[in-house]
């Protein structure tokens, strides 16, 4: 886009252009994204139906998985409708307040997902390193406290981002080079001093993603140390198997998260590469989580089979 001297005072609307450089193929790019969203929605709805109704799944790991499923559904709802409307129908305009609302929900739900992954890592740590105290440590009250703390932390820290953006009045452009409203993409539109916005954005990223990643990493180091000390080979194999799903999701979530975060601030990555990867980062984990966690759980597999073939409950 060519440069312009025009500035905008308190804009009422913004324009999302989708994926810059790939506008001519956005229509077709929308179909694989739709497929990923459908897998995510169906998979997480199945989890939210199965986990509350299956008594054998009323355990901390699966309660956290249900919360993760609700968070993933929220992410799909926050991102997919507007993104597909841009790709397929050219509906690029969006109210500025609606953009800030989408920004809040996307980043808050990201923060909640990160917190739940940390809670799941803690659950695996206690289950493997201190199994005799697992039920006494992860009591129902403690689970509720963890979930509330994760939700409040993300809501409060992320909630300040749109407030800081709302105080900005002068913008050099209203065209957001993205397929959804992302914090730094909106910050870059401002024609005012945005050091506070950038600094606070960094603080939120490290206070949530950085903090969680460090402690998830420490948890798995301690878990692996405990696993390698197990005398039986079969016990080691079983312990590793219970951690495999968590490690896959953990690596996929945090690697793409930090690539998206740092490339927007410090990198020189092509815009379409950054936007594709940041969209994949937000939409693939919601589709991957039900598969990775659900397929490895016998009770979930059996319930999905019952729902799909419409048969009465199978006695276990």
TrEMBL record:
It is found in: Cell membrane; Membrane. The keyword Metal-binding does not apply. One of its GO terms (molecular function) is olfactory receptor activity. The chain crosses the membrane at residues 27-50, 62-80, 141-165, 202-227, 239-260, 272-293. Its main location: membrane. Residues 43-293 form the G-protein coupled receptors family 1 profile domain. Belongs to the G-protein coupled receptor 1 family. Odorant receptor. This is Olfactory receptor. The lineage of its organism: Eukaryota, Metazoa, Chordata, Craniata, Vertebrata.
């Amino acid at each position: 886009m060519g440069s312009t001297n025009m500035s905008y005072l308190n804009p009422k609307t913004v324009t999302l252009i989708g994926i810059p450089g790939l506008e001519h193929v956005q229509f077709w790019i929308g179909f694989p994204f739709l497929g990923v969203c459908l897998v995510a929605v169906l998979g997480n709805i199945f989890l939210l139906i199965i986990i509350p109704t299956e008594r054998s799944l009323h355990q901390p790991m699966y309660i956290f998985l249900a919360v993760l499923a609700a968070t993933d559904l929220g992410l799909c709802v926050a991102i997919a409708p507007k993104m597909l409307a841009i790709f397929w129908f050219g509906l690029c305009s969006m109210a500025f307040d609606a953009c800030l609302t989408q920004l809040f929900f996307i980043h808050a739900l990201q923060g909640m997902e990160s917190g739940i992954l940390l809670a799941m890592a803690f659950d695996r740590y206690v289950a493997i390193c201190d199994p005799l105290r697992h039920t006494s440590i992860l009591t129902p009250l403690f689970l509720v406290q963890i979930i509330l703390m994760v939700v409040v932390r993300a809501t409060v820290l992320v909630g300040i981002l749109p407030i800081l953006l709302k105080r900005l009045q002068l913008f050099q452009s209203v065209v957001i080079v993205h397929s959804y409203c992302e914090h730094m993409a909106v910050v870059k539109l401002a024609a005012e001093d945005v050091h506070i916005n950038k600094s606070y954005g960094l603080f939120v990223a490290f206070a949530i993603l950085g903090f969680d990643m460090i402690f998830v990493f420490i948890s798995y180091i301690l878990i692996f140390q405990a696993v390698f000390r197990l005398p039986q080979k079969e016990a080691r194999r079983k312990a590793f198997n219970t951690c495999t799903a968590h490690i896959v999701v953990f690596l996929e979530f945090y690697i793409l998260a930090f690539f998206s975060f740092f490339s927007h601030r410090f990198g020189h990555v092509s815009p379409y590469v950054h936007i594709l990867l940041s969209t994949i980062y937000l939409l693939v984990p919601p589709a991957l989580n039900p598969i990775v966690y659900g397929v490895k759980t016998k009770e979930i597999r059996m319930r999905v089979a019952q729902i799909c073939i419409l048969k009465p409950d199978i006695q276990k």
